[in-house]
Input
Amino acid sequence: MMSFAQRASELCRQYTAAQIHRRLKTASQARRLKIVLNGSLKEVGEDIAVEELIETLELSPGQVAVEVNGGLIVRAERAACQLKESDVVELVTLVGGG
Output
């Protein structure tokens, strides 16, 4: 049987911090927040940052613009920007082409 430290070390090699956070929370422990995402009501985990929301939705971080409650969230601030109940989030993906 693996120790907690061994399991944590293995998880760190396999997953991003956001993915580990999601795996360690159980559904019964996690409170859900209701946000408005691109005009539609969506439930998300209580301790979710913008960066984690982008990962959860499987969007490319470099190709998405983020606005929360009318304010632009720059890429450097996404990990620190924790979502709250009733936040209004707009995600706009950038698409190339001609």
Q: What stands out?
A: Strands lie at 32-37, 40-45, 64-68, 71-73, 88-93. The chain has three helices and five strands. The mean pLDDT is 85.
